[in-house]
Design a protein that fits this description.
Layout: H1 3-28, H2 41-48, E1 67-74, E2 82-89, H3 92-105, E3 108-113, H4 115-119, E4 140-153, E5 164-172, E6 177-184
Antiparallel strand pairs: 1-2, 2-6, 3-4, 4-5, 5-6
């Protein structure tokens, strides 16, 4: 092989490899990994999510009577954010019982909306987006009550909520639905 052919082959390989690297770096890092395979639930809850305190309110297993189960999970990349949600329907009496239980321990309560709206309210805290929605909406409709069980501000002075975490539930009694959520950023 002549030197010019070798250099041409090397340049071609560099361009192809470099464009592949750039495409995968920029196209996949901002996309949440939506998992619909409910068999992965226990693996995510018990092994992949790094802080068990933030998911202790999640069910240990998907309840056998649950319907329309959806999971959204995005792993933490470098210093980026991560989230975990499970959305499911249960019998109305179970949802009412869960609503009563979580209302009594919630530190903040919101009706509908999303994290950007909630944090900008007086004494607001970050919550979550509606990752498990049936549409591409980011906000919870007004039929959902968002109950914040805990938040932790890990920002520094002058950069409130720059880093931190929050977790809780969103409950829609009219749809007999509960969404367990946890966020880290």
């Amino acid at each position: 092989m002549k030197r010019s052919q070798f250099l041409l082959a090397l340049a071609s390989f560099s361009i192809v490899g470099g464009s592949f690297f750039l495409r995968t770096t920029f196209s996949s890092t901002n996309e949440p990994k939506i998992i619909t395979d409910t068999s992965r639930y226990k693996e995510i809850r018990n092994q992949l999510w790094s802080d068990n305190d933030q998911v202790k309110h999640f069910p240990n297993e998907i309840p056998t009577d649950a319907k329309d189960v959806r999971i959204a999970y995005s792993p933490e990349l470098l210093q980026g954010s991560s989230f975990f949600q499970i959305r499911l329907k249960q019998q109305p009496e179970k949802i009412e019982k869960l609503l009563s239980q979580y209302r009594s321990s919630a530190k903040q309560k919101y009706i509908g909306g999303n994290t950007n709206e909630h944090i900008n309210q007086p004494s607001g805290v970050p919550t979550t987006f509606f990752y498990t929605s049936d549409s591409h909406t980011e906000s919870f409709p007004a039929s959902y009550e968002i109950l914040v069980l805990n938040t932790e501000d890990k920002g520094r002075f002058g950069f409130k909520w720059n880093h931190g975490n929050s977790y809780g539930v969103a409950i829609n009694t009219s749809a007999s639905e509960i969404i367990y959520w946890s966020e880290k950023w």
